Amino acid sequence: MRLDKFDHAILNVVQRDNQLTHAEIGSEVGLSNSAIRRRLKLLREQGIIARDVSLLARDSHGVTVIIDVTFALDTPKAYADFDQKMHEDPMVKQVYHVSGTTDYVLIVQGPSLEWYETWAKEALMSDENLQRHDTRVVYSCKKFETSRELE
To answer: What per-residue confidence (pLDDT) applies to 142?
Structure first.
């Protein structure tokens, strides 16, 4: 799908607040309610808008850790197995396969550091394909943005 300036404007608005009415969005971007409705429907159908969610306050629940994971054995099967395991774990919130000396970066949220110690032993240390994992505990968040910049 080729996006025009109105699509970009709509996406910028709904990334900031997707609870606005079609009329409110239309007034910001210069389109009618029905045009906004049609465009949003198409943006969702085409997968440009992947999900509409509510973001909870970061400090309201437990601990967040950022984990660098390095594999001892780099094989497609090892990566696929790890991808599946992380995808199925509800405490793993983000998984990035990255370049450099680290193979993966994980964002994990749980109730406590005691919980994390047990989780790390079960989820990471028990995986024979992993060489090591390095953990950083998030003390506070100075910036958290989910929007993507559009031209």
So the answer is: 87
